[in-house]
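tool=predict chain=A
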Amino acid sequence: MKNKIWLITGISSGLGKALAEFVIKKGDFVIGTFRHQSQVVEFNKKNNKSAKAILLDITDEKSVENNVGEIISKYGKIDVLVNNAGMGFVGAIEETSMKEVRSVFEPNFFGTLKMTQTVLPFMRKEKKGHIIQISSHGGIKAFAGFGIYNASKFALEGFSEAMAQEVAPLGIKVSIVEPGPFRTNFAGNGLGEAENVIHDYSETAGVFRTKLKGVDGKQEGDPIKASKAIIDLVNSENPTLRLPLGKIALMTIGMKLESVKSDLEINRKTAENTVYR
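tool=predict ok
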């Protein structure tokens, strides 16, 4: 195939769905993942020549390995990997059980890491490829009530930033997409919540929990415009490591940078005085 082959995880709704549709419209070939067979069947009926749906749970390591192997055997390459599948979660740190923490980290970090590690050998062989990690403005700045989700995206950004340096000499590109609030199902049925609620956090984490659920369907971000921005990034000669999306993302990431800069300056002399003379 002359056109790019995109492997996009989690295309049942939201940004993943919009991106898959936009990539198909632009003439590239999409391999998209779903978690239910009925979704796979329906998608393949509609897109029998321009795309292919597969059944894949990214938290199942053996399934990841088998599916990626089959894709390479059939199509010969993966030009663009978009790690989009994941989940949102709200709750104060103390409210959240370890079981709930693991349920967030499995798709957001471990599953994404496994997908990345499994595709990389084939990109290394071709000496080209682009890995798109769908993070969040919450992967840069943390919010009370969002800490576990923040932690999973901070972890994603950490390994992705290091990996970008490792694979650059091999011809492989890495970009981290950091959307703000977008009009998807993220704040709706797709949002996980801590079962335990502690009254002492009602004015911090509790406020955020209520606010996040209240914006469902009212978010500023347009998934179609975000999809175009991602495709433009992939097609650019020198894609940036990070791509913020939305006015709120620009604002919150800017706030984080200013906060870090302020702490750096306040503690500069203290830091300098902790070294051997």
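The mean pLDDT is 93. The radius of gyration is 20 Å.
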